[in-house]
Design a protein that fits this description.
The complex is a heterodimer of chains A (256) and B (161). Chain A is mainly alpha-helical and 256 residues long. A 3-stranded antiparallel beta sheet of chain A has the order 1-2-3. Chain B is an all-alpha fold and 161 residues long. Chain B has one domain. In chain B, helix 1 crosses helix 2, helix 2 crosses helix 4 and helix 3 packs antiparallel against helix 4. The chains are: A mainly alpha (256), B mainly alpha (161).
Chain lengths: 256, 161
């Protein structure tokens, strides 16, 4: 242990690193990248022997040979790659000595309210995503369902984002969004019997579907972060249950 | 439908789908186009391999490998983490659809179909993960070899001088 720096200095580094780690996990980064970034920031700030452990629900860090150690909980996980990019850029700037520790501290607090795309653009993105993927997956170029999938996907994504504000349980907002999608698809089929409910739903659900979570979980497992891999896999299974359950219930009630 | 039109539709739609997903997960502006390109490349690799009869696992592995390499390439060019390009690019490949269909089959009581679909999800996920791992390995090896040769050449030039 060295007496070069006082406790306040280490406390500052801990704060910065933990905030950076939490932001990256909230943005949906891989665990090895989170740990790597935190270690880099600590080393570049001049701390010896930093130790880090990150899981999708919590980040731990200790400094100064284990004399100081803290943790930070991560409550809210979704994919927001802007956060990952910003933290990464700040860490790069800090490593290149373009900003000092104080500036890094100020900037990393501001990362949390980084601008995102406006809501209408996100809904449009979800709509075109569901329509185009439906055509790709079905492989028979079925243009009848094209507008239907766009409508259902956009509205479903919007419903998901709106319900997310009211409840902290992600399972519930996914379930409700899936039910909204199921109802809309059945309604479209009732209006025009040429539209196939299954095709529309396959396209529309691609906005919420847990495939990416599964793939990320497997990548974490392969990289040796067993704990976070398992946690993410659980999350993906829950999402699949919510989506399949919501749609299944609606289709059973409606008798399609 | 003529073959060239199918190719055009597949390229355009996979690009649009990747960019659309990038919009919903808030990818930084400068990475939008590149993530769309790597999405289109990945989907086209999958499509061709699947058409050639290589089976689901190998096609997914090859396209994930290509996406991983492209992602690392873009990451070096644009100075962003590679995940930013990989996540939107993977959207057309990822086994979300069978995962949802599996749960729906289970809800409807078709247990055999559900099991089949769950197995398919597992296989496709494993293939994509393996493809990524291979791409990381290859890129690391490539840069190591490149730097080693680069150093040798520099030494040689110094000696000559």
């Amino acid at each position: 242990m060295s007496d070069k720096h006082d406790t306040k200095f280490y406390q500052e580094i801990l704060d910065i690193c933990l905030t950076a780690g939490r932001l990256m996990i909230e943005g949906g980064s891989e665990m090895y990248r989170v740990e790597d970034t935190m270690l880099r920031i600590a080393r570049n700030a001049g701390a010896e022997d930093p130790r880090v452990f990150a899981t999708p629900t919590c980040v731990f860090m200790s400094l100064n040979g284990g004399n100081l150690s803290q943790m930070k909980q991560v409550r809210d996980r979704n994919i927001n790659l802007e956060l990952v990019d910003r933290v990464n850029a700040l860490s790069r700037q800090f490593a290149a000595k373009q900003i000092d520790l104080q500036q890094l501290k100020e900037k990393i607090v501001q990362v949390a309210n980084a601008p995102s795309f406006p809501m209408w653009l996100q809904v449009v993105g979800a709509a075109i995503l569901s329509a185009t993927l439906m055509v790709l997956f079905m492989d028979n170029y079925d243009w009848v369902d094209f507008p239907g999938a766009a409508l259902v996907g956009g509205v479903g994504f919007w419903a998901y984002c709106e319900f997310k504000k009211y409840t902290k349980v992600r399972f519930l907002s996914e379930l409700i969004a899936a039910m909204v999608m199921g109802l809309l698809a059945v309604g479209l089929n009732w209006l025009d019997s040429q539209m196939i409910v299954d095709n529309i739903l396959i396209g529309a659900l691609m906005t919420l579907v847990p495939g990416l979570a599964l793939t990320n979980a497997l990548r974490d497992l392969f990289m040796g972060d067993l704990l976070s891999g398992i946690v993410r896999m659980c999350e993906a299974v829950l999402t699949a249950l919510a989506l399949g359950g919501g749609v299944g219930m609606i289709l059973k009630f409606m008798g399609v | 439908m003529p073959f060239w039109l199918e190719i055009v539709i597949n390229v355009a739609f996979s690009y649009i789908a990747s960019v659309g997903f990038a919009l919903t997960i808030n990818v930084p502006h400068r990475a939008l186009n590149s993530s769309g390109i790597s999405g289109a490349v990945g989907w086209m690799a999958y499509w061709f391999c699947f058409r050639l009869g290589m089976g689901r696992m190998v096609s997914n592995l090859i396209s994930a490998f290509l996406i991983g390499i492209l992602g690392l390439f873009f990451a070096r060019r644009k100075k962003c983490p590679a995940t930013i390009f990989n996540i939107p690019a993977l959207v057309p490949l990822v086994p979300g659809m069978p995962a949802y269909q599996a749960v729906r089959a289970l809800v409807a009581g078709n247990y055999t179909q559900g099991q089949e679909l769950i197995l398919r999800v597992a296989i496709v996920t494993a293939a994509i993960g393996l493809g990524f791992l291979l791409s990381t390995m290859c890129i690391e090896a490539f840069y190591r070899i490149k730097y080693r040769h680069f150093k040798k050449i520099m030494l040689y030039m110094k000696r000559k001088r």
